[in-house]
Amino acid sequence: MEHHPAAAWLTEAAASAVQQHGTGNLLRVVLIVMFLGCALTAWLLLRGYKRKDD
């Protein structure tokens, strides 16, 4: 497996957040990002149906 410095930084930041604030804040951030990602994906997929093919 290759070493990815960005992934290492992300896991270190997540571990630090869990140690300092518990799992509640991390879970809240993950849920917000998931919700925004789903909304953006739905918007991108569904905007094509709005076009008129006259």
UniProtKB/TrEMBL annotation:
Protein name in the entry: Uncharacterized protein
Keywords: Membrane, Transmembrane, Transmembrane helix
Domain of life: Bacteria
TM regions (residue ranges): 26-46
